[in-house]
Amino acid sequence: MTDIFTTPRSEPHGETHGKFLVAALYHFARFPRFSDFREPLQAVCDENGVKGTLLLAHEGINGTIAGTDAGIAAVLSFLRAQPEFGALEHKESRASSMPFLRMKVRLKKEIVTMGVEDIDPNKIVGTYVDPKDWNALISDPETIVIDTRNDYETAIGIFKGAVDPNTKTFREFPDWVHNNTGLHNKPKIAMYCTGGIRCEKATAFMKEQGFDEVYHLKGGILKYLEEVPQEESLWEGACFVFDDRVSVTHGLEEGEHTLCHACRQPLTKADLASPHHEDGVSCIHCHEVRTDEDRERYRQRQRQIELAKKRGERHLGS
């Protein structure tokens, strides 16, 4: 899910850039009281009309939330008032409509699930690289560039020349590393993800596996798309985000992708033109693996979604 970020901008955002403020955040910290913190955090979010998902674990916090500027500011102030999260950073973008249905504060074993015990980014981690310096690093022939995201994310965008592990989940990443001995063929490993959190664990893991020069993009793809001019960019495509915007592009503008509500894969305009696409029922990615019973069940759900839309409501299955 979300990742390392800059502090809030001091100037107000105009309505032309989106009515809702979206804040993506994470922070690794020793947080043994995470279970007791769930209800107070949920209450603050609800009181301020903020929606999204925040994950709490013994290792810290991770998530993305959206709301009014004032609502987001209130939640961030509450978080930074906690001794564990005083140094918490976040990344801002805008959305033209509320990108979340509800507010969920969940308790987890890990705030980003790798499934490898004793990986602690507070103890060991790769070298951060600012977006302005990223192009030079990944253009160096002595560097292997690795995208640590999952296959449905890399399908719509990737850095030029990057290696795509084609993982279904982040849990598969350690095995992918073990099975690719060629990663030792070059001295430098450069890694990136959406906003930074997966790379915190991925670079820590790589360092523990004996890789020496391990780097990661500070602030992730989102920070790069915000700061690096499009004419200088080595990013190709759009960046998948975990909310109703589906994707963002340079300048963190909302992308043109939609989501298949049957398989959750991002869809391009060309995908929507496929004869296998049916709103809420199937798409080019999942048509062949769904049964007729599946499709009929999805059609019933889609009819309920459309009825709710006509009433001016939002169906929970949408």
Summarize the structure.
The protein is α/β, with parallel strands linked by helices and 318 residues long. It has 9 helices and 15 strands. The radius of gyration is 20 Å and the shape is globular.
Descriptive keywords:
318 residues; five-stranded mixed sheet; single chain; TRHO_N; 28% helix; alpha/beta; globular; four-stranded parallel sheet
Structural account:
By secondary structure, this protein is of the alpha/beta class. The protein is built from nine helices and 15 strands. It has a five-stranded mixed beta sheet with strand order 4-1-3-2-5. A four-stranded parallel beta sheet has the order 6-10-9-7. β14 (258-259) and β15 (266-267) form a beta hairpin. The longest helix is centred in the last third of the chain and has 19 residues, at 292-310. Mean pLDDT is 90; it is low at 1-16. Catalyzes oxygen-dependent 5-hydroxyuridine (ho5U) modification at position 34 in tRNAs. Keywords: Oxidoreductase, tRNA processing.
